[in-house]
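Example record for the data management plan.
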Amino acid sequence: MNYTTFHNGNTMPNVGLGVFRVENDDTAKDAVKHAIISGYRSIDAAFIYGNESKVGEGISEGIKAANISREDLFITSKLWLEDYGKENVKRAYEKSLKLLGLDYLDLYLMHWPGTDENLMLDTWIGLEELYQQKLVNNIGVSNFNIYHLEILSNKATYKPVLNQVEFHPYLTQLELRNYLDRNSIQMESWSPLMNSEILKDNVVNQIAREINKTPAQVIIRWNIEHGVITIPKSITPSRIEENFDVFNFKLNDTHIRKLDELNKGKRIGPNPNKFNG
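Corresponding structural encoding:
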């Protein structure tokens, strides 16, 4: 496993398991448990996914099966829009902790910026209070554009350590990536495989054949080469293992350029400037 260091000195694994659209049953529990046994040390959850209780069971069972400690893991969850507002943040955070069966989170994110700037700022203050009280190790945002980050920067005491956004070869977000890099905010990609859509691309498959890797491994490695943390989702044991087997090869400059050139500005998720839940 490789790690990235945040601007506050804390570290996070470069590859984790996402659990978006995984049922709150043994499917989620078994996927998380298998991921931890397979070497994953980062799990990305969210209250709105509705599966934190089973994800928590998977974390607990995975820790025991892998013979590791809670401190060896990096667990993320996210604050949903309905719980925005400074006075709601701590209660929502504790709700996620209870569902996950944890005493703390390694990273807590605002899930979307929303369309109310004052509410966004007020909510961020609530996250800052969690961080100041050492209830959470790191705080960040998700789906924030430069515009949203600039608003935060003018008012925030602590800047986010990370911005989790949509990022794949069809949406390379170069301007945002450069902005985050200049401001020492880590970028993380959700749904890097585009719900498997990108795995059908001819260029991706050509590169995969050339280096004897799978299309998914090519995309995950492309994220790593760009310094982007990523959280591919799978509930299939063999694919969970496949998505993690990306630290024994590199893409060359030609591979990276060809993948970058696939950019279409295409989203599979909502527009962050308009989405409000």
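Summary line stored alongside the record: The chain has a mean pLDDT of 98.
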